[in-house]
Write a structure and sequence with these properties.
Layout (H helix, E strand, L loop, with lengths): L10 E4 L4 H12 L4 E5 L7 E4 L2 E6 L2 H8 L3 E4 L3 H13 L4 E4 L6 H13 L5 E3 L5 E4 L3 E4 L8 E8 L2 H10 L5 E6 L10 H10 L5 E7 L4 H12 L4 E6 L23 H10 L3 E3 L2 H14 L1
Parallel strand pairs: 1-2, 1-5, 2-4, 5-6, 6-7, 10-11, 10-12, 12-13, 13-14
Antiparallel strand pairs: 3-4, 8-9, 8-11
GO molecular function, one term: succinate-CoA ligase (GDP-forming) activity
Pathway: Carbohydrate metabolism; tricarboxylic acid cycle; succinate from succinyl-CoA (ligase route): step 1/1
Catalytic activity: GTP + succinate + CoA = succinyl-CoA + GDP + phosphate; succinate + ATP + CoA = succinyl-CoA + ADP + phosphate
């Protein structure tokens, strides 16, 4: 099984006709993703051929859903237009919106996240500033390369895109039920805890890798959740042990303030919850290999 995304998911791409949308839609189609159309108000009613498939471009998400039955939108819209694009997806009540766009102002993310809550959380948001979600051999919504790893028993949730790819590569001999990149912005939709809850409930996921990074307290809260609710083995990695205090590292949310948000504090919280934490991604992968071998 998989979480949030499966072989029956019908995907639309907001920003399909832009360079990023076209490039990644081609790769998603090649990975077997069922893309059923795109959204661009200025090109509504046209048809584009991508990866050998004719895709209709709709004026709104609502129209696309009505005509195609789409239940996932992947959003490749420039930062200044992204808030409106996500709100449009929420207003149409699409079940899953994967926001790839980097550089969305935090107040815009706060606005559309609050809008989703006000609408009753009918739309799960993944991102923004994330690589998306892949259920190998079933569907790929985003920019995660589909050929790194196949299906298997490991669930992966990560703040970092590149570390998502590295961990999938390191554990490719075992494979993944779903790998989800939640993004590293200060305000995101789906959290570590949301993914942990879904992996815990998924019978095919036997063990979980959680990748965090400095800044905020998401990993500490995830550790508390694991202690109370997760019975499956979890291994972790926290990026940023050498980060200087007060300097943003890579992601907008990756900033250490005093003793809060340090890699060491997060590592200690996770270990106190029974999570084995590697000092490097490769060491973390080795810990997971030991766990899978013992299952």
């Amino acid at each position: 099984m998989s979480i949030f995304l499966n072989e029956n998911s019908k995907v639309i791409v907001q920003g399909l006709t832009g360079s990023e949308g076209t490039k990644h839609a081609t790769k998603m189609l090649a990975a077997g993703t069922n893309i059923v159309g795109g959204v661009n108000a200025r090109k509504a009613g046209t048809t584009v051929t991508i990866g050998g498939k004719d895709l209709k471009v709709f004026g709104t998400v609502e129209e696309a859903m009505k005509e195609t039955g789409a239940d996932v939108s992947v959003i490749f819209v420039p930062p200044k237009f992204a808030k409106d694009a996500v709100i449009e997806a929420i207003d149409a009540a699409i079940p899953l919106a994967v926001v790839i766009t980097e550089g969305i102002p935090v107040h815009d993310s706060a606005y559309f996240w609050a809008h989703a809550v006000a609408k009753g959380n009918q739309t799960r948001i993944i991102g923004p500033n994330c690589p998306g979600i892949i259920s190998p051999s079933k569907s790929n919504a985003g920019i995660i390369p589909a050929d790194i790893a196949g299906p298997g028993p490991i669930g992966l949730v990560s703040k970092s895109g590149t570390l998502t790819y590295q961990m999938m590569y390191e554990l490719k001999e075992f494979g993944f039920s779903t790998a989800i990149g939640i993004g590293g912005d200060p305000i995101i939709g789906t959290t570590h805890i949301d993914a942990l809850e879904a992996f815990q409930a998924d019978p095919e996921t036997k063990a979980i890798v959680m990748i965090g990074e400095i800044g905020g307290d998401a990993e500490e809260r995830a550790a508390a959740y694991i202690k109370e609710n997760v019975t499956k083995p979890v291994v972790g990695y926290v990026a940023g042990f050498t980060a200087p205090e007060g300097k943003t590292m890579g992601h907008a949310g990756a900033i250490v303030s005093g003793s809060a948000g340090t890699a060491q504090a997060k590592k200690e919280a996770l270990e106190a919850a029974g999570v084995k934490v590697g000092k490097t991604p490769s060491e973390t992968a080795a810990l997971m290999k030991e766990i899978i071998a013992a299952l």
